[in-house]
Design brief:
CATH class: Alpha Beta
Radius of gyration: 17 Å
CATH topology: Nuclear Transport Factor 2, Chain: A
Oligomer: single chain
Largest sheet: 6 strands, mixed
Number of strands: 8
Distance between the termini: 39 Å
Low-confidence stretches: 1-13
Strand order of the largest sheet: 2-1-6-5-4-3
Strand content: 35-45%
C-alpha cells in the first residue's frame, strides 16, 4: 500500500490482458494495457456493462464505449505517454468486491500545439468485482489532482481555486 510498482513487476507487452488474480494486481494490468496503445485492451479489464468517468466528466457505459475513446487518445495525444503508479489502497467490501484507489502520474501527453505537456497527476477509483476467472472493474472514475486547490468555480470559465489563499 502506497509504494510505486517497480517497472520490472509490470507484465510484458506480449502478455495477454486478462482479469487479474487480485485487486492489488489491477493497476499494473491497467498500465500494461495502456502501454500497448489499444483501447480494447483497457476495456478488457472491465465487465461488459461497466462504466468509466474520465477526468473531464465524460461518462462511458460498456466495454465498447470505454474502448473507443481510449483507442483514439492512445493513438493521438496520449501516443507517447507513460503512466507511473504511486500510492495505492485497496478496501475490500466483501469477498468478491473491492474499491481500489491509486495515484497515477501521466507523462508525455501531446499538447494541442504539438509540444510535450508537463506531467499530470490523477487519482483513479475502481470498483472491482471478483469472478471465477479473476477480478474485473465494474466502475472507474479518474480525478485530476490540482495541488493547493479546494474546488472549482465557474466565473467567466471554470477554474480551480483555493478560498484560503490570501494576497500578500
Amino acid at each position: 500500500m502506497g509504494a510505486p510498482i517497480p517497472i520490472e513487476h509490470l507484465p510484458s507487452r506480449d502478455t495477454p490482458i486478462r482479469p487479474v488474480a487480485t485487486p492489488e494486481d489491477f493497476p499494473a494490468a491497467f498500465v500494461a494495457a495502456w502501454d500497448r496503445r489499444r483501447g480494447a485492451e483497457i476495456a478488457a479489464l472491465f465487465t461488459e456493462d461497466a462504466d468509466f468517468v474520465n477526468v473531464t466528466g465524460l461518462w462511458w457505459h460498456g466495454r465498447e464505449a470505454i474502448a473507443k475513446p481510449h483507442d483514439y487518445a492512445l493513438r493521438t495525444f496520449f501516443a507517447e505517454t507513460r503512466l507511473r503508479i504511486g500510492r495505492t489502497e485497496v478496501r475490500r467490501i466483501g469477498p468478491d468486491v473491492a474499491v481500489l484507489r491509486c495515484r497515477v502520474t501521466l507523462a508525455g501527453q501531446i499538447a494541442p500545439d504539438g509540444t510535450t505537456a508537463d506531467k499530470r497527476q490523477t487519482i483513479f477509483t475502481f470498483v472491482l468485482h471478483g469472478q471465477k476467472d479473476g477480478w474485473l472493474a465494474v466502475s472507474a472514475q479518474n480525478t485530476e489532482v490540482l495541488p493547493g486547490k479546494e474546488t472549482h468555480v465557474n466565473v467567466d470559465g471554470l477554474s480551480a481555486v483555493n478560498y484560503r489563499a490570501t494576497d500578500a
